[in-house]
Amino acid sequence: MKKIQSLGVxxxxxxxxxxxxxxxxxxxxxxxxxxxxxxxxxxxxxGHLYFDPGDGRLITIxxxxxxxxVHDRTPTDPGCVHHIAFEVDHAMFDQVLDRLEERGIENSxxxxxxxxxxxxxxDPLGLLIExxxxxxxxxxxxxxxxxxxxxxxxxxxxxxxxxxxxxLADAAVMIVERSQRSLSDDRSAKNPYG
Length: 194
Description:
194 residues; alpha/beta; 2,3-Dihydroxybiphenyl 1,2-Dioxygenase, domain 1; four-stranded mixed beta sheet; VOC_core; Extradiol_RC_dioxygenase; Glyas_Bleomycin-R_OHBP_Dase; VOC family protein
């Protein structure tokens, strides 16, 4: 038996309401360029709208002019989507609360998750959206996921409940020492001021 290896998220498709509501939210609120529009090839009554969330992957929406926005929370039963998180940088994150307030969009306020900060709010159809900003930059040539894996190991070893900033910093050091060579035989921490 062999695995089927994924290479990343190809796209996420959501059921939307009417076409303009989808465009107004995904492009007009979240700034995702509206890049492609065609009929839903499996249902002639629906359109299929494509948006770029910023990494070249796709968020797609099935629209139908007979569906109107419903502001209730989407189901959170087992198997349902709880929320979708999108990355923003810290400069934008610092503006999110004001920009949501300008539109009268209720939100969670800033949540400190240790390795990131998050703000949650619902889209016009009740889907929970998270805007998240990492509190660290991965070393060149590595990824956020690689840092998180190493930080998790450090968290478990220390007995901490959640990943803390010290775990992230130490994980970055470990990754650099493992991936970047040095002429030094001893790369341990030193105090040249001693």
